[in-house]
Each structure stands twice: as C-alpha cells, then as structure tokens.
Design a protein that fits this description.
92 residues, alpha+beta, elongated
C-alpha cells in the first residue's frame, strides 16, 4: 500500500475508475441470458459457475434437490469434479 500514497489524486482516481469498470458487468442482464442459454441447451453448471451467475453459493434445504432464484430453478444433478452439478430450469 506504500505505492498507493505516492500516486497523485488524479492517478488514484483513474485507477479506481478502471477497477470499477472491470467489476461492473458490461451488460446488467447478461447473467440472465447465460442462465436462459444453459436452460435451453440443458447444460450442467458447477456450483462455482452458478455462484458467479446468481451472486451467491447454491444451497438446497435438507431433503430437497432444488432451489428457485428469480425465474430459474436449479436442480442438483450429480457432480462435476468436487462440486455439485446443477441443471437450470426456466420457471414460467
């Protein structure tokens, strides 16, 4: 963090804007398009892929095999490596 002190205010502002640009999604609805594509194609997604798309770790209640988030249900369908595999189903 020492280097941070030596940056001018203008440079710090530019660095922060660049970081924010990368953290902000390019298209706000992109994750929904990707979920729709996964549902349509019948792809299985790993837990980390689901987490990246919906923003939190997928979890099911005890004794259940699926959970719903918004317009999509996620059904546990085996495993991918050391993670659960999830089938995405569009809820109408």
């Amino acid at each position: 963090m020492k280097q941070w002190r030596y940056l001018t205010r203008l440079h710090r502002s530019a660095v922060l804007k660049a970081i924010a640009r990368h953290l902000r999604p390019a298209e706000p609805l992109q994750h929904l398009k990707e979920l729709q594509l996964a549902a349509t194609e019948g792809w299985l997604l790993s837990s980390s892929e689901v987490e990246g798309l919906i923003g939190y770790k997928p979890r099911v209640k005890k004794g259940e095999q699926q959970f719903t988030r918004g317009s999509f249900s996620f059904v546990r369908s085996g495993s991918i490596g050391n993670q659960s595999a999830w089938k995405v189903v569009r809820v109408n």
